[in-house]
Amino acid sequence: MAVSYKDLGFVNTKDMFKKAFEGGYAIPAYNFNNMEQIQSIVTACGKSNSPVIMQVSSGARKYANSTLLRYMAQGAVQMAREAGHDIPIALHLDHGDTLELCISCIESGFSSVMIDGSHHDYEKNVELTSKVVEYAHKYDVTVEGELGVLAGIEDDVVAAKSIYTQPEQVEDFVKKTGVDSLAISIGTSHGAFKFKPEQCTKNEEGVLVPPPLRFDILEEIEKRIPGFPIVLHGSSSVLPEYVDVINNHGGKLNAAIGIPSEQLRRAAKSAVCKINIDSDGRLVMTALVRKVFADSPAEFDPRKYLGPAREELVKMMIDKNENVLGSAGKA
Ligand code: G3H
Ligand code: 13P
Ligand code: ZN
Prior knowledge:
By secondary structure, this protein is an alpha/beta fold. It has one domain (5-325): TIM Barrel. Helices cover 47% and strands 16% of the residues.
């Protein structure tokens, strides 16, 4: 039976993005697949009084079971309210690839969907995105489209090289499709290996510094669609402190490099209203689970290794909200 997100306590992204744009900060969009991740999102955003977008990929839906996942998300809103956190929460489909998937999510209570037509040619992207917008807007669900291709894995599609968004296309795309926000490609990419070491320079401490994001392209886009909410995917910093814990406890993540926090802070102050973070959460969980196993090899109660991972995830998200995205205190 179809259910409206409004009855589940979610909000769409319209008001969130308007306030984020005016206030010069970005809304965190954290991916989740399981209970500990959703608990961390609610606790961290509740404690830091931040609006939040909880997002689910089609892979996450398959992994967790789409029905269970919807009830988990609904439970998360209740959990926040019972803890006294009156923060706006959106439930968003990350990288939707078909109209059918978007419809299914909307019918099961999502307040926002992404239709990622970026791998199609421009005309097909416009056509597919327009169809999703036409359906979603009937139910007051907001839609994110994408122009330009990010390197790395976007669900099942792997792109070897990023193709930057062409500013000349954005005005036409937004006008023709009616999307509510636009994901762009300016040098971020998905996963934990965003740059090859040879693409980076070394600072005085010998730390590898990746090439800066293409803020010139972002500015050009802002000029063409003033006031329009922009989304950044692939925005994990691949936090070195967690990569080190992983590598020092039996892991092997060679040359894991992400987007420096200062770059994201700068983006959050611009028209970028939503910043997607998945890989940093994965790294935190892996680091803590590896550490518990290395320190306590006799441990076999999942609560004893997932519990510390959950706690650390809360810390990492609070830090992002407060010091990177600037969304803390904005609920
Ligand atoms: O953009 C991709 C997100 O990190 C989701 O990844 O498709 O493995 O769930 P996933
Ligand atoms: P990261 O892999 O950088 O966390 O990006 C996640 C993302 O863009 C989800 O859509
Ligand atoms: Zn993404």
